[in-house]
Known about the structure:
Number of domains: 2
Radius of gyration: 27 Å
Number of helices: 22
Distance between the termini: 49 Å
Low-confidence stretches: none
CATH topology of the largest domain: Butyryl-CoA Dehydrogenase, subunit A, domain 3
Amino acid sequence: MTSAVNPDLERERKRATFNGEILTDFIYGGAHKKQRRRDIQNAVFSDPEYQTLKPWAFCSREDLYSNHLQKANMARRLQETLNITDQEEGFIIRQSLCSNEYFGLGVHGFMFIPTIQKLGTEDQKRKWLPLAKTLKVVGTYAQTELGHGTFLRGLETTATYDPETQEFVLNSPTITSMKYWPANLGKTVNCCVVMAKLVTQGKSHGIHSFVVSLRDLETHKTLPGIEVGDIGPKFGFNENDNGYLRFHHVRIPRDHMLMRYAKVAEDGTFTSATNEGTILTYGTMLFVRAMIVTGTSSTLAMACTIATRYAAVRRQTEVKPGGPEAQIMDYQTQQYKLFPLIATTYAFRFTGQRINDHYTTINSNIEKGNLENLPELHALTAGLKAFCTAVAADGVEVCRLACGGHGYSHASGLPKIYTSATVECTYEGENTVMYLQTARYLVKCYNMMKAKKTLPPTFSYITDKLSGKSDLDSKLNFNSIIEAYEHRAARLVKAAALNISFWMKAGKNPWESTNKSSIQLVWAAKACCHLFVVKTFINQVTSIDIDPNVKSALTVLCRLYAVNGMIENMGQFSLDGFLNETQINMLTRKLSDLLEEVRVNAVTLVDAFEFSDNELDSCLGRYDGQVYEALYKYAKSSPLNDTDVHSSFQKYLALLKYQGSKL
C-alpha cells in the first residue's frame, strides 16, 4: 500500500474555505479534548493485542462472540493502564475497539448498574454495586418477552411472594412470557434485573424489578430452574449473545426485589411511593434513548465520510469525448444524495447534545422527587429516538447506494454500519410505538391549549389559529424557516386531535378513535421532532462564537438541512396554502445553490469528525483515498484464497463435470 494521498482527495482538502482543525476542536469540545481523543485512540490501535485481532468481515459467529469479550477485557485493561476514570474517555476506548459493533458488557454498564442505582435501597446498592463494578456479578436487563415489548403492563413473567419462606417465586407461565432479546443474556451474564408482575397476598401490583442470579459465580453453570440460551444469528450485531430466559418456579430472597420506591414487607404487605410506577417505567429507558439520539450522528457521519471520500476519488464518464472522467461528486444527483446527509449528521449531533443536557437537568429534579417535567422529557426522548434512528438508517443505505457496486461489499464498511444503524429502529422502543407515545403527549398539549393552560416552552407553538401566509423568501431568513416548521407541526397536531374528537363524537370508544387517527398522529410526531432538530441546529449556528469561516460553512449546512426537509415534505408545508407555488419553486432553486456551496467543503466537513481508518474499517473511506489498492488487498486476504484449489472441487465440482459428460 502506498502512503501517498490520492491527488483528487488532496485537492478537495486544499480548496476548503475553512480550517478543518477548528471545526474538529468544536465537535470534540476543544483542542485539549481533541488531542486527548487522538492519544487514547493511538494507544488502542498500537496495542499489540489489538493488532492480532482477526478481521471482522472474515469471522465466524463464534469468532465474533469471542472477540467481543476479548475486546471488553482489553478495554478494561487499557482503562487501567491509561488511568482513565472519565466516562467519556472510557467510551473513546470502546468506540475504537468496537466500531459499529456491540460492545461486550455494554448493557451491564448502561442498564444493569443504573437500574440498581436508581431503584435499589441504600442497603441493596451497598450489596450489589461493588459486585457489579468489579465484574464478580455481570448483569443484563431482562424486560422484553417473546410476546410483549414496549407494552409493559402486558408482561407475563410473575414474581409471587411466599410469606412462609420470605421469598419471591419467579415463573414463566407461558411460551410468550419467556424473556427474549436481552443483550449478553445467552452465554455471558450470571445475573440480571428482571421486570416481572408482582403478586402478593393474592393481588397483582403491576410490574416491578428483581435481581435474579442465573449462573453460578464460580463455574458459570446455569442454576436450577433457569433455562437460558442464545437466540441465534441476527441481521447484525452477531457478536452479541442476545438471549432467551425461562423461569421454572425459581425462588429468590425477599430483598432481591429492588425496594427504593416499592416494598413488600415480611408478611407480604405491599406499599409504594406515589410516583414509583412512573419512575420505574421510564427512568433507565429515558437515559438510553437520550444516548441513542447522540449515537445516530456518529453512525451517519461514518457512512457520510466513506461515501464522500469515495465520491471524490471515484471518476466515471467522460465530460468531453477523450477527456478525463468526472469525479462522481461533481454530479448534482450525487450531491443531492450526500450533502443533505452531511448536514443531518451535524443537526443530530447538536440535537443529541441538547437532549442529553435536558435529560441531565430533568433527571436531577426527578431524583429530588420533582416529576413535573418528566412527561415532556419522555415525549421528547421517545420521538427523537424514533426520528433520528429512522433517518440515520435510511441515510446509511443512501450512502451505500451512492458507492455503487463496491458499496455492497463488506470491504466498503457500509453493510456493517447499516446493521448497526437499523437495529436502533427497534430496540429500546419500536419506532412507530415511540412516535405514538410522543403524539399522545402532543394531543394532551393541544387540549391544554384549548383549555387556556400554559404549555411547556418546547411545545408552546401548538395552536389552533393557523391562518396566514409564510413570508419566506430567497434570503431564507431563519425566523421564517422556524415559522414554517412550527406552522406545519401545529397544523398536523391540530388535525390529529380533531380527528380523534370526530370519531369520539361518532360513537367510537377512545381506543378506536385513537387507532383511526394513528397515521395522522405519527405524522404530527415526526413533524414536531423535525421542528425540534431544525430549531436546535439554527440556535447552535446563530449563537456559537467560532471562526467566521467555520460558522459560515455550518450556516450553509443548516440552511441546506432546513430547505431539504421542506422539499421532502412539501405537501405538509403547502397543503393549506401556507407556502405558495412561487415559494416552492424558489426553494427548489435554493436547494441547487446550497448544494454548490457545500461542494467545496464536503470532504473537509466529514474529515472534521476525524474517524480513523480503523474505526471506519473501509477500503472506500480511507483517509489517503487509495481505494483500489485497498480493495485488491482485501480481496487477496479472503480465506477462500488460502488454497489454489479448494477442497470442495474434488468432492462436488469434479463429480458434476464427470456426470455432465455422460449426459
